Amino acid sequence: MRVQIKEVNKDEKVIIRSIGEEKVYGYWTSFWCELTSGYAYVVPYKQSLDKLIPGCVISVEIFQSSIEGFRRLRPTEKTGVVRPQPKLGDYWIQGMIQQVMQGEAGGIECLEIVVGDATFVLDSEEMNGDTNVKAGDGVSFEIIGMQLFEEGL
User: What is the distance between the alpha carbons of residues 130 and 49, in angstroms, rounded to a whole number?
Assistant: First the structure.
């Protein structure tokens, strides 16, 4: 997904991952994209803040701290929705399952859900036990703590 950076708070950062002694930081950022605008922690490519400036456009992969409220959409509900929630960094998503990846035992390992140019990947634990979904189904869920990883493209 491509996003335009509106503002970066370089003083408000969190450790997204620790690999040995190396720490990967995300910086609190206001962004805009085709689907929505809002806030998320952005992890700059190679941890460099040089190019993460207001007005720049970056390509990102989307991750989240957790998922809540996963369910299938009713036929009358539309897909293509990314709506900010009252808590900054959280988003309500309504999209279409593009791909279902099966695990070795035949169960669902993860889902790839597409909304516009954004792709969300949910593992089986984030699906509330719904194992009857298939490609083409509309689903909704809430992202808690969106994280955007710059791809460096």
Answer: 40
